[in-house]
Amino acid sequence: MPFPRMPREKLLRYGSQALSDHELLAIFLRTGVPGQPVLRLSSTVLEHFNGINGVLKASFTEFCEHKGLGSAKYCQLQAAFELVKRSFNMQMAENKPFTCPALVKSFLLHNFKQTENERFACLFLNSKHHLLSFQYLFQGSISSTQVYPRTVAQYCLRLNASSVIFVHNHPSGDVQPSTADQVLTSHLIEVLKLIDVDVLDHFIIGLNKSFSMAEHGML
What we know:
Blueprint: H1 7-14, H2 21-29, H3 38-48, H4 52-57, H5 60-64, H6 71-95, H7 101-111, E1 119-125, E2 131-139, H8 149-159, E3 163-169, H9 179-193, E4 198-205, E5 210-212
Parallel strand pairs: 3-4
Antiparallel strand pairs: 1-2, 1-3, 4-5
Helix pairs in contact: 2-3, 8-9
């Protein structure tokens, strides 16, 4: 492959931002398979998984079923992905208050893992609205999750949180809050008032979509 088409050399000369998705992935894959050079393999992988996000979110079984991929490449990609997430989270926690819905949406895009069942999580914040911890607290069925306000309050006290943001997913993809979602949110607000913890927002996550109850005046 003539210089500078080789991804590594191109990266060294022009920087990582100059590389396409399939060139960046090719650096991780390192080698192709018979009949498929590494750049062609990376292109077919991206096409099969509908882009880099699909590659990173593929299960171990799904990933390894694709020709040319295996456990070593899966571990390398997942380790790199986790390092990026931790770096991103550290910057968010240290530098930016979680008072802007757009910022929270960006955080959730990187951190909230979609499942076939509903999950309820909390972002616990300090008095300056910086992130203390992101925790999954409850998991339920495909259509509902049992949330216990007492458990949420215990986590707030344990982490010395001053405020909290709720988030749960709708596996159906519909991000509109149900009546049950609104009732639960109101109940949690009342419970947490007793321990001086403010509820800043409640996000509902769907398929690449999100809904902020605070943005829609529902808190």
